[in-house]
Design goal:
By secondary structure, this protein is α/β, with parallel strands linked by helices. The chain has helices at 10-17, 31-38, 54-67, 96-102, 105-121, 152-168, 199-206, 208-215, 241-251, 266-269, 274-284, 298-314, 319-339, 362-370, 409-415, 429-437, 453-465, 494-505; strands at 19-20, 43-46, 72-75, 126-127, 174-178, 220-223, 257-259, 289-290, 372-375, 388-392, 420-424, 442-446, 470-473, 485-488. The strands form four sheets. Strands 9-14-13-12-10-11 form a six-stranded mixed β-sheet, with helices on both faces. Strands 2-3-4 form a three-stranded parallel β-sheet. The chain is globular, with a radius of gyration of 23 Å. The termini are far apart.
Length: 507
């Protein structure tokens, strides 16, 4: 590699300051991360690969903060289906769709504050949440239960409540994905989605929650790799000066940090190139580059650092723009350090409790309130002995990942030892589950049945053969309820499974 920089010079420090890279490992911070922090890196990001327990995360962040006490340590912890802090157990909090269904902003504020305290206790001070997307397209493959709902006013008031709650714990929020990812049928992890509606629709629907987030004082906004022709016919949001500077900065008057969505996602890396896309994003008005979800090595950081330096020296990227972006990163780091209250990261950790703080129980309370139980025409009694749990599993989207357990099997097994289970997918899944269940009563668990024809067919097969089948929908409850008992949890967090198990057993 040809190095174009000299460690310690202002340009190099600014080029490193705008990066939010990840790294591998759970026990020790790699030497290369320590060196880069010394040279100006102001942020790092944690992912599921960095998490084993709350105590372990607190120890890891303490090592990082020993290198720089105002370091921004970011995580993608939406709660609900998208959890990193509880990636191996499932979240202690329901996600946005469940909170939106309850529609109690005070509850949303309290849940976000409780989660914020857990993050702060683990030494994390920047959360890439909440999703402020309006779920306008029920077939959306990547947002769904990550959204508070399909009503812009509802999404706006809960986005504001979440921002207020989380930031009351000293953890900066990042309302995402600007200018909106809710009306898309494509996942930007794979290619560039298009929201082809006029400006009036964008104003009244997609942009409303971001205005609410800004009014509530969100410290950051995350851009979307989404093309909105009414705003910019040529560039997706992350690379659009019209959207990031013209709309967000100048029209909305937003002065906080703009962070990009993951730049290794194919909407950017596969279309513009990874390094080139990062330079274009800063030039368009972004301040921080999220890079660590995929590549997590030193070479990636050095290539990006050198790409920024080269772009400044060639005149493609104004040096003042890079300096402005770096200053915003450092300003947010300063806010987070001042908001930490002087307590040591990890103080108050409770051994064995996921997320690091004593469980207040508010997540389960919220999950219970979000639950909807519909009883069929042929009502069946609650499950009273070990059932067969048939989980119909779609391919997970990349944001959720495939590491986090979901469903109700563990919860029902705890109540009824001897519970049996299986996971099924594709054509013929219903017949396979029926054969596996034998004479046992069936609990069928689905996720977004309205988006998967094979899943709807499987439910029809089961309910026709066994009218006493219990159906648990853990995605967006868009389809008509089926089954003797139909339970909509509006998310697949661990607490959603617990609340569903209570309803299944009548507890």
């Amino acid at each position: 590699m040809t190095t174009l920089t000299h460690a310690g010079d202002t340009l190099t420090r600014n080029a490193l300051a705008v990066l939010q890279p990840g790294f591998d490992g759970t026990a020790a911070v790699p030497d290369w991360v320590r060196h880069r922090i010394g040279e100006g890196l102001a942020s790092v990001s944690l992912f599921g690969r960095n998490v084993q327990s709350a105590e372990q995360v607190a120890a890891l962040t303490a090592q990082l903060r020993a290198e720089r006490d105002d370091l921004l340590i970011a995580i993608d912890e939406e709660s609900g289906d998208v959890t990193r802090l509880e990636v191996r157990t499932g979240s202690s909090y329901p996600g946005n769709h469940a909170l939106g269904a309850v529609d109690d902003p005070a509850l949303t504020r309290a849940v976000a504050a409780d989660l914020g305290r857990r993050l702060a206790a683990c030494g994390i001070n920047f959360n890439w949440a909440p999703s402020a997307d309006v779920n306008a397209n029920p077939d959306n493959p990547v947002i769904g239960v990550r959204s508070f709902g399909s009503d812009p006013e509802l999404v706006a008031r809960h986005t504001a409540a979440y921002v207020e709650g989380m930031q009351s714990a000293g953890v900066a929020t990042s309302a995402k994905h600007f200018p909106g990812h809710g009306d898309t049928a494509i996942d930007s992890h794979h290619s560039v989605p298009v929201i082809d509606v006029d400006r009036d629709v964008l104003d009244s629907r997609d942009l409303a929650p971001f205005r609410a987030a800004i009014a509530a004082g969100t410290r950051a906004v995350m851009s979307a790799h989404v093309l909105a022709p009414a705003l910019d016919p040529d560039h997706p949001g992350t690379l659009s000066r019209r959207i990031l500077t013209g709309l967000l900065r100048e029209e909305f008057g937003y002065e906080g940090l703009i962070v990009t969505d993951g730049m290794d996602m194919q909407a950017i890396a596969g279309t513009y190139g990874f390094e080139r896309g990062c330079v274009l994003a800063i030039a368009a008005g972004a301040d921080a580059i999220c890079t660590g979800g995929g590549p997590s090595d030193e070479g990636t950081v050095l290539r990006l650092r050198d790409a920024f330096v080269a772009a400044v020296r060639s005149g493609e990227l104004p040096e003042e723009r890079l300096a402005e972006a770096a200053d915003r990163v450092r300003a947010l780091a300063g806010w987070a350090a001042a908001s930490a209250g002087g307590g040591a990261a990890g103080a108050g950790l409770a051994a064995g409790v996921p997320g690091g703080m004593p469980d207040t129980g508010i997540g389960l309370v919220a999950a219970r309130r979000a639950l909807t139980v519909t009883r069929g025409e042929t009502y069946a009694a609650p499950v009273a002995k070990a059932p067969y749990v048939a989980t119909f599993s779609p391919l997970p989207n990349i944001a959720v990942g495939d590491e986090t357990p979901w469903g109700v099997t563990a919860e029902l097994t705890a109540r009824f030892p001897g519970t049996e289970s299986g996971t099924f997918s594709g054509d013929g899944a219903g017949a396979e589950a029926l054969a596996a269940a034998g004479e046992r009563r069936i609990v069928a668990v689905v996720r977004d049945a309205h988006r998967h024809g094979w899943m709807a067919d499987a439910l029809t097969t089961l309910v026709t053969a066994h009218p006493d089948t219990v159906v648990v929908e853990m995605g967006v409850p868009q389809s008509a309820p089926v089954g003797a008992i139909h339970i909509a949890t509006r998310g697949a967090a661990r607490v959603c499974g617990e609340a569903a198990a209570e309803a299944i057993t009548g507890a």
